[in-house]
């Protein structure tokens, strides 16, 4: 039986864009998502090295990648890119990688940041991190709900 003092394995949440990767990690108790510094993308190799460092630093045991679906729920070209990226992460890090519906997270992140009365420049700098937090937080909350059978 695990000691109550031992932290849970952490989950890394990613909001992957063409220029940046917003990152968030679950807290040691697995209850909340905490934003990390946004990763500026350079090349596949340097992106993976940076992600590996984050995974090691936080003891990450699984990864959640935002999965951009159309409002209809259908997958598109960007969804396919994220599925391929998730597969690359599985191969590189040998960890479970989940695709998580991210519809509206960027809009929600912008709304939260606007309500915080941040400037447009400050919002632009924080939106990827906030989107990653929202993706990971919704994953954590959905996982903690008791499963319902139809």
Question: Would you spell out the secondary-structure blueprint of this structure?
Answer:
Blueprint: E1 10-16, E2 20-26, E3 33-40, H1 44-58, E4 60-67, H2 77-93, E5 97-101, H3 105-115, H4 120-144
Parallel strand pairs: 1-4, 4-5
Antiparallel strand pairs: 1-2, 2-3
Helix pairs in contact: 3-4
Helix/sheet category: alpha/beta
**SSE pattern:** EEEHEHEHH
CATH architecture title: 2-Layer Sandwich
CATH class: Alpha Beta
Give a verbal description of the structure.
With 150 residues, the chain is α/β, with parallel strands linked by helices. It has a single domain (10-144), classed as YqgF/RNase H-like domain (Nucleotidyltransferase, domain 5, 2-Layer Sandwich), CATH 3.30.420. It has four helices and five strands; from the N terminus they run E-E-E-H-E-H-E-H-H. The chain has helices spanning 44-58, 77-93, 105-115, 120-144, and strands spanning 10-16, 20-26, 33-40, 60-67, 97-101. It has a five-stranded mixed β-sheet, sandwiched between helices. A hairpin with a 6-residue loop joins strand 2 and strand 3. Helix 3 (105-115) crosses helix 4. The relative contact order is 0.20. The model has no long low-confidence stretch (mean pLDDT 87).
